[in-house]
Amino acid sequence: MLRLGYDVFPTDGTPAMAREAEKRLGRPVAVLRFGEIAGEARFDGVWACACLLHVPIGSLGNVLKRIHGSLRLRGMFFASFKAGNGEGRDALGRFYNYPSPLTLENVFKDAACWESVEIREVPGVGYDHSSLTWLNCLARKA
After folding, report:
1. Do residues 97 and 89 lie in contact, with contact meaning Cβ atoms separated by under 8 Å?
2. Are 122 and 61 in the same domain?
3. Is the pTM of this model over 0.70?
4. Distance (Å, rounded) from C-alpha 131 to C-alpha 91?
């Protein structure tokens, strides 16, 4: 995104990961946890690739509402999740929310007023090398 000329505001929820990202990006990376996302409409887009899949499903709606509030009118939002039928841990012991497409669609709709929400199922592999289905979500703020 930086190479394409976008003005990005990189974040990570853990200080160690933010510092590592700073080294790789050559620019500051803010430490920002999901529950700390402000509601100020200042972004044209939010890219949350393989990160919100760690939010408990009962808290995901609040996070989506905060992200929605951070977007300008007609702002775009991308997020990816590992498909499944409920929360659990992978072979490496990491927590995932594992939503079904219908569950994810309902969480988006209940969280905020989106103009559109598109969820695509894509075959892939997890970090534990297991085969899985990714749910790629693209939403536009109304």
Report:
1. no
2. yes
3. yes
4. 12
